[in-house]
From TrEMBL:
It comes from Gossypium davidsonii. Signal peptide: none annotated. This is Vesicle transport protein GOT1B. InterPro entries: Got1 (IPR045176). Keywords: Membrane, Transmembrane, Transmembrane helix. The keyword Repeat does not apply. GO terms for biological process: endoplasmic reticulum to Golgi vesicle-mediated transport; retrograde transport, endosome to Golgi. GO terms for cellular component: cytosol. The chain crosses the membrane at residues 7-31, 37-55.
Length: 66
């Protein structure tokens, strides 16, 4: 619920002419809305031949926490 509200409030701010604040709220809402999907996406990316190798490198794994 928090992600949805944040996303739509951000959209409202963009429409009324406050784009920076609106985009920040929209980005936060997007991250919260799809927070349960990020682990699934990480597993999918690891199975792609070149990207998988890249994301399995130690310096990338520490940044992404995958």
């Amino acid at each position: 619920m928090q992600g949805t509200v944040s996303f739509f409030v951000g959209f409202f701010f963009v429409v009324i002419g406050w784009p920076i604040l609106g985009m920040i709220l929209e980005a936060y809402g997007f991250i919260v809305l799809f927070s349960g999907f990020w682990p699934t996406l990480a597993v999918f990316i690891q199975r792609i031949p070149i990207l998988g190798w890249l994301f399995q490198q130690p310096f990338i794994r520490t940044v992404c926490l995958v």
